[in-house]
Amino acid sequence: MPVRTRITQALAPLAGPARALIGLAAAALGGVLILAPLSVQQVAIVTGLGLALIGSAALLFPTLDGVTRAAARALGIVFVVVGGILALWPTAGAPWLAFLVGAALVCSGIFQVVQVVRNGGDSRATSIIGALASVVFGIVAFSWPVLTLTVFRLGTGAFLVFFGLQIVFFALTKRAPGPRAPRSALARWSRTAGAALALVLAVALALGTGWILGGVPLPQPGRFYAAPDSVPTEPGQLLRTERLSEGVPHGAEAWRMLYTTTNADGTAALSSGTIIAPKQRGSDPLPLLSIAHGTTGVAAKCAPSLSATPFSDGAGAALEQMVTEHGWVAVTSDYIGLGTAGTHPYLVGEAEARNVLDAARAAHQFTELTLTSNTVVWGHSQGGQGALWTGQLAAEYAPEIGIAGVAAFAPAANLYGLAEVNKNEATGKTVSAYIAATWNELFPELDLAAELTPGSSRGVEKIQDLCFNGQDVLAAILRGTQVPNQIFPDSVLAGDFGRLLREQTPTGPFPAPVLVAQGLADPLVRPEQQREWVADRCAADAELEYREYAGLDHLSLVAADSPLTTELVTWTLDRWAGTPTRGTCTAWTTDESSAEVPSTS
Question: Model's pTM, two decimal places?
Answer without folding.
Answer: 0.79
